[in-house]
Amino acid sequence: MSKQQSGRDDPRFRQIDSFDQYLGTDLARTHGFTSSEEAAGLDPEMVQFQHDRLMRDGYIILHDVVDAATLQALRDEAAPYLDKVGRNSFEGERTQRIYGLPEKLRSADAFIEHPLILAHLDRLFLPNYLLSQAQVINILSGSPAQPLHIDDGFYPWPRPRPALSVATVFAVDDFTEDNGATVAIPGSHRWGEDRFPLPDDPRVKATMPAGSCILFLGNLWHGGGENHSGSSRLAITAQYCEPWLRTQENYFLSVSRETAAAVSENIRRLLGYSIHPPFMGMSDGMHPKRKLPLQED
Ligand SMILES: O=C(O)CCC(=O)C(=O)O
Fold it and tell me: What Gene3D superfamilies has UniProt attached to this entry (predicted)?
């Protein structure tokens, strides 16, 4: 038998002897799958404490996790794109949104790959979890409350169940009582399919200073608040999902290969340049990073 006919002759050939081995092996082979690591300096006990609260209440508020310069960079870069309001009452008739952030706003990366958020995602999801969508959201004064909703309800897997996605909303402006702070129903991540928010359900408003973040599970009922403050409320949000789910935004189309090659390894992996073993995410039978003009091998 010639070499072309027998893959076994190739020293890189892998013999898969069990189904578990099949599921656990990166069969696209060339690039091992990368995992995000807790950034140096994060106290695992503190992250675990926050994680336990997140699992108990469905949300947690992380105070002062982004500095003023990072907030200003986002404000400056976002401003030219904040030129239209929503197309429906969910997006908000008086709410401005910017989609396609990984291509448009490099300043968004610091929020999307925030080390503390990645540390939480590492605890919640399998390696190579994905960015499902990211937006800048500017709720203008006069905006009614957004309808309450859960973020992962479009995955047809009956609830109650574990969260299939997780979201951040970072306050770029202070979130106050009357400017549209995110509203959430604590504990609602445990509700079943037929349980919807009732007027008497206790709600929390994520009032917090600029640079803080509400992190919540994808099955928690929440929504943007009503803004009757006279000023707008600027935020940036990111949603992440398990590596085996379809993402909301198709980043392979909205982010160019040049941009995907230039961003950090964290962002690239979150955009889908990774493999969920054995080969989810492959392209032409190869690791998708092989399609990028990367400097490395
Ligand atoms: O703007 C917010 O506070 C939350 C927005 C939200 O939940 C959404 O647009 O899905």
Answer: q2cbj1_9rhob like domain (2.60.120.620)
Full domain range(s) for residue 238: 41-244
Average pLDDT, the chain: 92
| Cα 183 to ligand 1 centre (Å) | 9
Count of domains for the chain: 1
Q: Which of 294, 261, 288 is nearest to 31 (CA)?
A: 288
CA distance 53 to 49: 6
Instruction: Please report whether residue 280 resides in a domain.
Output: no
Say which amino acid occupies 49. Answer: F
Supply the CATH number for residue 138's domain: 2.60.120.620
10 Å CB burial of residue 197 (0-12, 13-18, 19+) is middle
Comparing CA positions, the residue from 1, 115, 97, 116 lying closest to residue 49 is 116
- Residue 291 in any domain: the answer is no
The per-residue pLDDT for range 18-34, each reduced to its tens digit, is: 878 777 776 665 555 55
Residue 132 lies in a domain: yes
Element (H, E) at 118: helix 115-124
Looking at ligand 1, which residue's alpha carbon is closest to its atom 4? 224
